[in-house]
Design goal:
This protein is α/β, with parallel strands linked by helices. The chain is built from 5 helices and 15 strands. It has 2 domains: 185 residues, UDP N-Acetylglucosamine Acyltransferase, domain 1 (3 Solenoid); 40 residues, no CATH class. Strands 3-6-9-12-14-15 form a 6-stranded mixed β-sheet. Strands 1-4-7-10-13 form a 5-stranded parallel β-sheet. A 4-stranded parallel β-sheet has the order 2-5-8-11. The protein starts with a helix and ends in a 17-residue tail after the last helix.
């Protein structure tokens, strides 16, 4: 137990440059407190003390602003940064070295009592406000951009942006055990596709004008496709 707690503290120090000491982390990090409380409530849940587990989880929610259902399975070294508004559902499964930012929801989209929440594999980073919904799997070392809504499986080593989330393969794979925290590097899918459409329109216009078609009528300005 104490080895696990040491690992939790070390992962915060490694991933948050604002953390100045282990004592500061232990005393001031709500995400860490929520994870530690979950380790207790999860054991109670597994031992069939489910009402007690839910009650303690509710107390932890009030103290930290982070709601983790006692039935959720959480691997080692989960780091919840800031944490306010994070919701993790009952059948969610989280691997090792995962990082969640505030406002993240690992939610369900079904009324069934079976598996209805996401599986998050090792090394995944989920940006602020992102929603991962349903019994889907997010592959290892994937980074999900802020406010993305992910409702389909994602392969490993992807970057996901948009609503609904669109996965894009990264140029280089992230080294194992090193979460990808470079949130400034996100693809702009809409802009890229608009640029392709405009390039295609330009090529069609050049082809039409080159075949002897009439030029732009007098007194009418040429179209400006620049954005």
């Amino acid at each position: 137990m104490f080895g696990t707690m040491r690992d939790d503290v070390r992962c915060v120090l490694a991933r948050d440059p604002a953390a100045r000491s282990a004592l500061e982390v232990v005393l001031c990090y709500s995400g860490l407190h929520a994870v530690w409380m979950h380790r207790i409530t999860h054991r109670l849940w597994k031992a069939d003390f489910r009402l007690l587990a839910r009650w303690l989880a509710q107390i932890a929610r009030g103290l930290t602003g982070i709601e983790i259902h006692p039935g959720a399975t959480i691997g080692p070294r989960l780091f919840i940064d800031h944490g306010m508004g994070v919701v993790i559902g009952e059948t969610a499964e989280i691997g090792a070295n995962v990082t969640l930012y505030h406002g993240v929801t690992l939610g369900g989209v079904s009324l069934s009592h079976g598996k209805r929440h996401p599986t998050i594999e090792d090394g995944v980073v989920i940006g602020a406000g992102a929603k991962v919904l349903g019994a889907i799997t997010v592959g290892a070392n994937t980074r999900i951009g802020a406010n993305a809504v992910v409702v389909k499986d994602v392969e490993p080593d992807m970057v996901v942006v948009g609503v609904p989330g669109k996965p894009v393969g990264r140029g280089e794979k992230q080294p194992a055990g090193q979460p990808d925290l470079h949130h400034e590097f996100l693809p702009d899918l809409i802009s890229d596709r608009l640029d392709r459409v405009l390039d295609r329109l330009d090529s069609i216009e050049r082809a039409v004008n080159g075949s002897g078609a009439s030029e732009t009528p007098a007194n009418q300005p040429a179209p400006d496709y620049a954005i």
